[in-house]
Design brief:
The chain is an alpha+beta fold. The chain has a single domain, classed as Aminopeptidase (3-Layer(aba) Sandwich). It has a five-stranded mixed sheet, with helices on both faces. Strand 4, helix 5 and strand 5 form a beta-alpha-beta unit. It is globular, with a radius of gyration of 19 Å. The N and C termini lie far apart (54 Å).
Amino acid sequence: MRKLGEIMDIEFVEGNQDLLDWISPLWAKLNSYHRRKSRHFAAYYDRMTFQQRKAILLAKAQNGLMRVDLVRLKDEDDYIGYIVTTISAANEGEIESLFVIEPYRKQGIGHALMQRAINWLDRHRVKVRRLVVAVGNDKALDFYEQFGFYPKYYSLEQAEQKFVLGGEGAIDSENVAEQF
């Protein structure tokens, strides 16, 4: 079987948080995708900047570890994909972000990035591994199942309030259980 690098003339660049700035243009495309797909949190994605996301990732890496893998076409400066993986101080791993630009999807690049991240987690003997898939990105679920990731629970977050508490249509929190 031919390796991905033999099929496409690509190379992987691996490192730590020092490489985060290199993912910025790709992350912006991912964030834009989530904004378009989100029914309830488009404003959240609209406000989120790369610098804010980077600060969140760096905070996680402060007491743990971070790995950044980038993919680029050889002989070109632009990256076509990335994955960011962290290990917390409690030795729990998380696939923080994965993205491959459209023309290069379904060619094994995302699969190779995931495998690199999982191998890194294996080397660090991480037992608990997780990732978050944004609502609206349902196509990603089948992809992640190939690696043994399945929904464990649903996490709900209140969107920006579109109603006035106590106004018409408001929920009486004392009787909410009776309503369901």
